[in-house]
């Protein structure tokens, strides 16, 4: 990629994220954070090299893709399309072999980042959505003795179309249809792992799952468009009445763009002044919730794609972003 393709938007030198406003909405439970791969990379050096044999930190999507590609002589270069490489790996070997490689990497206890620490320190319960497989956000909550609900999707064909729900402290999950899941963000935070998760003690590892191959993504996105959907209905209601904060996401992956468009489609909000629970009002400019994206070194294409979706994007390091918000938390 040419250097000019990675240049920041000219306005980024003059505009910082609205740290104070983001903090107040986090404090009041009015934001849904989305954690992408960048949120788990931590404060690693820019020239750090991922080694899957002796991982010192979690890989980016392209690093994981290139690592898997080596084992099956993936025929295309560069081998940075993780979904395509994972599909090829599974065809050349097996699903079990692919899962074994993923467990080898994600079962390690890497340090959680300033972003995870920040979210775990927010006093108001919130819905946190992540497409990451690691357990960094859960461990940040556990280390602070803060309870949380865990929701993800099963690997088993017998439970296809369901979600798995671990209540705080539970070692075994309950299986629910997404439309029927009776879970709302009330007194306890919810961690929704949209693309599956690694599971370690105290959880039973048989429930871990990964949406990683092209076929996995097609199946998941297909369920999103079906009646009942893939995302729990209670979460969709919460999403449509909250500001969205994307942390460490890029828009290069088509599957994420499809998901984002699904979440950002025209929505309706409940009329709080009426006693008719079914009456809804269309979103207007006056009540439209903001959407922010924090991404380090987005490409020009990504700037265009975010802006086309009315998302305010800021070229800021995630650790610096977390520090900026925390200054408002502890003035």
Strand content: 5-15%
Spatial ordering of strands, largest sheet: 5-4-3-6-2-1-9-12-13
- Overall helicity: 25-40%
Order of helices and strands: HEHHHHEHEEEEEEHHEHEEEHEH
Task: Give the averaged pLDDT, no decimals.
Answer: 86
Number of helices: 11
Strand tally is 13
Q: Report the major sheet.
A: 9 strands, mixed
| Protein structure class | alpha/beta
Cα end-to-end separation: 42 Å
Task: State the gist of this model.
The chain has 331 residues and is α/β, with parallel strands linked by helices. It contains eleven helices and 13 strands.
What does this structure look like?
- This protein is an alpha/beta fold and 331 residues long.
- It folds into 2 domains: 257 residues, no CATH class; 62 residues, no CATH class.
- It is built from 11 helices and 13 strands.
- A 9-stranded mixed β-sheet has the order 5-4-3-6-2-1-9-12-13, with helices on both faces. Strands 7-8 form a two-stranded antiparallel ribbon. A two-stranded antiparallel sheet has the order 10-11.
- Strand 12, helix 10 and strand 13 form a beta-alpha-beta unit.
- The protein is globular and about 55 Å long.
